């Protein structure tokens, strides 16, 4: 019996949020008196997988099939189910992200497991495996008790601080009886964003909404982000209008981020947007409308025109850096 956790990687580099999932799974495993096993799919070097030991994993089950370098949902479900059955797992952890949402519910059905999406806490075992989760797009919390023998938990990324320890893992190959239909979807092209800070891992984020008026003004967002060393993000209508790429869209239907600083410029603060950013440690809102709902969620607010405020803020950051070198 062990707790298993699905790992995500990008070109063989394990994502920060997966280290967090491993840390989470290993803490649960400790409380249950067992250990955490990480499941890795695709081309990842042994040296990279060893890093999982630094976050508490004791074992890695590796499926080195190159086809798994892209997300094939059916194949990923099959490998996670195979791993869970082989390890006799009671708890399966994925992330509450695009991949986790595609995989975890199907795995839960196949294993007749209770599923907790949007998990924000460790299970309280004294309360019979009770977990705090986010509901209504992050507007409220619910405490749910999972009563099935097998539990699938989808952890919201950036819920816990990473803390590295020493430790190593035993790496074993996992054999999975894939079928051709598991790879029925053909990936014809992969476009990777390079030279930018990945949004999911960013500690600082500068984000723009429809208040920027058009893509021609995005230099204002990018200049501030560059001065701060921040990633850039946007609201959904901005991505829908192709002002910005879709991977920058945050919110209920986009990415969930929890940076230390989230600067929202010209974004109204609709509930669907807040769903993706309300876990940010500090929120700064720039909006010309003092009644904009985002101000209610902000730690700091600037009532003003983004066209004036953003260049002044960028200049202030530049000067501050100059004086504090
Ligand atoms: C099912 C569903 C899912 C959704 N998912 C998402 C999601 O994941 N993410 C998301 O973002 N949205 C999502 N939405 C859309 C969401 O409801 C809002 O419509 C959207 O977030 C609004 O984007 P915005 O704030 O950029 O634009 P607007 O609502 O148009 O707000 C623009 C803001 O800019 C301000 N402004 C205008 N000009 C200036 C200026 N010169 N200077 C300063 N401020 C200015 C305005 O006062 C206003 O507050 C979803 C909606 C639905 C129905």
CATH topology of the largest domain: Rossmann fold
- Give the helices and strands as they follow along the chain: EEEHEHEHEHEEEEEEHEHEHEHEH
Overall average pLDDT: 94
CATH class of the largest domain: Alpha Beta
Strand order of the largest sheet: 7-10-6-1-4-5-11
Query: What small molecules does the structure contain?
Result: flavin-adenine dinucleotide
Look at the helices and sheets and give the structural class.
alpha/beta
The CATH superfamily of the largest domain turns out to be: HUPs
**What shape does the CA trace take?**
globular
Give the uncertain stretches in residue-range form.
Answer: none
Q: How far apart are the first and last residues' alpha carbons, in Å?
A: 53 Å
| Level-2 CATH architecture of the largest domain | 3-Layer(aba) Sandwich
Radius of gyration: 21 Å
Count of strand segments: 16
Helix count equals 9
């Amino acid at each position: 019996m062990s707790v298993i956790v699905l790992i995500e990687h990008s070109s063989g580099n394990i994502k920060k949020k997966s280290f967090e999932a491993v840390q989470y799974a290993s803490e649960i495993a400790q409380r249950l008196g067992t250990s955490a096993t990480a499941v890795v799919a695709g081309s990842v070097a042994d040296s990279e997988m060893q890093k999982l030991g630094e976050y508490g994993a004791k074992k890695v089950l590796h499926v080195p099939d190159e086809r798994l370098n892209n997300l094939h949902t059916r194949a990923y479900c099959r490998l996670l189910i195979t791993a869970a059955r082989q390890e006799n797992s009671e708890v399966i952890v994925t992330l509450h992200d695009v991949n986790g949402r595609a995989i975890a519910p199907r795995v839960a059905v196949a294993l007749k497991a209770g599923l907790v999406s949007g998990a924000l806490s460790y299970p309280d075992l004294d309360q019979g495996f009770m977990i705090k989760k986010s509901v209504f797009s992050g507007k409220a919390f619910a405490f749910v008790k999972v009563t099935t023998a097998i539990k699938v938990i989808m952890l919201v990324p950036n819920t816990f601080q990473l803390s590295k320890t020493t430790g190593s893992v035993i790496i074993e190959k996992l054999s999975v009886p894939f079928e051709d239909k598991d790879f029925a979807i053909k990936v014809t092209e992969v476009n990777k964003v390079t030279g930018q800070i990945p949004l999911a891992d960013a500690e600082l984020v500068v984000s723009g909404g429809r208040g920027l008026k058009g893509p021609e003004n995005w230099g204002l967002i990018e200049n501030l982000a560059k001065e701060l060393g921040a990633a850039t993000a946007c609201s959904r209508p901005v991505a829908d209008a192709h002002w910005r790429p879709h991977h920058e869209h945050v919110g209920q239907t986009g990415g969930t981020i929890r940076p230390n600083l989230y600067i929202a410029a010209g974004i109204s603060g609709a509930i669907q947007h807040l769903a993706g950013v309300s876990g940010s440690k500090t929120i700064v809102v720039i909006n010309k409308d003092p009644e904009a709902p985002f101000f209610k969620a902000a730690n700091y607010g600037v009532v003003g025109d983004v066209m004036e405020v953003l260049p002044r803020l960028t200049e202030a950051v530049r000067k501050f850096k100059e004086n504090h070198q």
